[in-house]
Amino acid sequence: MTVRIIDRRFDSKNKSSVNRSRFIRRFKGQIRKAVADAVSKRGIRDIDNGEKISIPGHDIAEPQFSLDHGGVWGQVHPGNDRFTSGEEVDRPLGGSRGRGKGAASKDGEGMDDFAFTLTRDEFLDIFFDELALPNLVKRQLAKVEEYKRVRAGFTSTGVPTNISLTRTMRGAAGRRIAIGGPYAAQLRTLEKTLEELLLTRADDDPEVEALRREIAVLRARIAAIPFIDTFDLRYNNRIRVPQPTTQAVMFCLMDVSGSMDEAKKNIAKRFFMLLYLFLDRNYERIDVVFIRHHTSAEEVDEDAFFHSRESGGTVVSSALEMLRDIIRERYASGSWNIYVAQASDGDNWNDDSPRCRELLTETILPACQYYAYIEVTDGAPQNLWEEYERLAASYPDHFAMQRIGNVADIYPVFRDLFRKRA
Amino acid sequence: MARKKKLAMLPQGSEWTLPAITEYDEAIGEVAQRYRLDCYPHQLELISAEQMMDAYASIGMPLYYHHWSFGKHFLANENRYRRGQMGLAYEIVINSDPCIAYLMEENTLTMQALVIAHAAYGHNSFFKGNHLFKQWTSADAIVDYLVFAKNYIANCEERYGEETVERLLDACHALSNLGVDRYKRSPKLSLEKEKGRQKEREDYLQAQVNDLWRTLPPALEKKAVKAEKHFPEEPEENLLYFIEKSAPLLEPWQREIVRIVRKIGQYFYPQRQTQVMNEGWACFWHYTLLNTLYDEGRLSDGFMFEFLQSHTSVIYQPPYNSKWYSGINPYALGFAMWTDIRRICEQPTDEDRAWFPDIAGSDWRETFDFAMTNFKDESFIAQYLSPKLMRDFRFFAVLDDDQRAKLKIDAIHDERGYRELRQQLSDQYNLGSREPNIQVWDVDFSGDRSLTLRLFSYMRRPLHESYDAVLDHMATLWGFTVRLEAVAEDGSVVPIAERMAEKRHHG
Hints:
heterodimer; A: alpha/beta; two-stranded antiparallel ribbon; flat; B: alpha/beta; 3-stranded mixed beta sheet; 22 helices; 9 strands; disordered N terminus
């Protein structure tokens, strides 16, 4: 019998990837909804991972003509432990243990939620889709960090082209000295004795001969120490380090007064996420500071930032003052790139708005790389918007603002930012 | 001859190597030959877990056309596998010539040997011998046909758009379980013929259909109506076949795709008809082959422990009241039946002589080949299930009538119940009674061209509500209104649902 054994393990793996992407394309609606749910649950910093999502099983069922329960069914079961012929028994068979199963099958198989895992790329793709990002930006954000190779000392292994001559020769010289040192010392003493001996003895005296032989042996030993040995070889070492080498801090400012409801906060959250993603691609290290405010501001953690509710009026300048103080205290040195993202519904005390503009122009904007403001509102612009508009004109590169009705409006805020880096 | 020399112990340990697998394959093959197992040549392919999941998603086929539903299955498997809820099957075997068996890289050497014995010799010989497989599948052509199908569908996607093709495939898949000929014989599949005749067929079919639907001049119409009889003349159980041949508005390429889905469905139909026999046969042979090797001193005790551990868990049958119970395990029943048949041949009791006069005391290998060749699950059980097995399994039959408050125990494993029990169990494997009997009944030729499907109710069993969605698909394919009505056992006809075709498919 002819037999062939074929090792296919290294053949292409992703035969199903086409089917997989078709599945995702086909149920994009449901998946997008699941992704939206997932986005509101996950932290800003986790945006860059895959996600396990589930969509309703009913939507993706593959229907066929089939029979349902009901009517008359005869069924043979194994393991009879108590029944006799002709006996009548209660439904379901097997008492309570069978019940769970019966209930589950009544709903029909596959009617449960269909759970699966999206890869990071698939997840981001759908996330970006919702934000209506242009392709160029999508690519830029989705790409994995680039690395560059930098020198990192020397190693004892490597390829010949990387041999470091100076290091190698220095090592070789050191080794020669270390190994030859004792011989050299011995040689010196012997030569000295010989010299002294020659003063008293004849040239062919046996003792002189012996000394001369000893000296010859030592010389040979020293000569036998290799000039260079594989042991001496040193190679230039290069390691990969992430390309972005600077650090940034991102401030998230949000109005949490009573008028900001969950929907508005969710839009704001996507706005913060997008900025975070952008920064994550461009900086090696990012600090995120959350400042929420109503009439007074406080610094909170992410959870409290998005999920706790406050009520009352709004004084935006309180947050800006806090922002200014934090910058001064913690991020004063020039080594931080400062980004600020502010979200609000536009409400502010009338008298406070000019104060905001003042704070921005005098202390904050000069320190910032970029300041993005979104107003999540359907109403007419209010005084804060008007004050900010005057700012935007004088800082076109640093300041962006946008009124937002839905999430697709977020991107224009970042347009300049992305264009600059693209 | 060289037997003496070969009697050395086979490689041990859990790590497999290619030479070790070759050695096992040779040893198992040699024993199989002594048992006169007739197999296709086989090909063992080592694959990784991920590739196994790929294979899963496409019903084990090495290549398949693309469709989102395969992606769905892949994602489902992947998710369950990653979370450890599901072990992957140890093996997938493909009914082709040469027979392809997949070995998963994570298996131990013992498991590889088990898989080789089970798939490459057990299933393989069943594929080659059983009449259903012989008749319905041509092992030498299937891989070529799949290549043809994949390329054809890919071409259609390019020409007519992925979504158009996807909608068509959705509709075909929805009907695929009723797209098989249950009783007719099939002509052989072959790539050459398919390719050569495809164009010809397209033209011919289209001409026929056009003829069928030619608008008759008004004067002739009256006469024609009279002359025309029922169409189709006989009710057609193969819905996909009917669509392929008679749907008026399908383009030739659409007919070809319907045909592809139908052909592939038909190809897998014997596997569904012979699950108990086939799995039981493979289990019997891996058990027998490896035990023979052990008796000859070529396998270690350690090997046998590991092998038996997985063998027994595969053929375990939980009782009805266990929380693991999910129906009768085909591996358990099949293995028990084949083992039992051998027992009846070799050590018949008086009871066996009374029940199986033909085979009691006969040569077991001949009896085996006869049974393997000529039966399917339904008839195999009706023919060979012995009273001893019914006692061993402690089988009992339950009658569930939704008009009665209680379940009735129809028969148990006793003298009075054996025949009834056997009959019922056999019926349980009759695909015809497990699936709704829906047939194309009528086409309103001279009127609105509507199509009527009839459900022939059996034991008042209702249709699952999914029929709604399936009718949509049917209407898409047919292009005109589709009606579904039920015929009760007393002959009364009740309409169930009606679908208007939303869009007619023109060019």
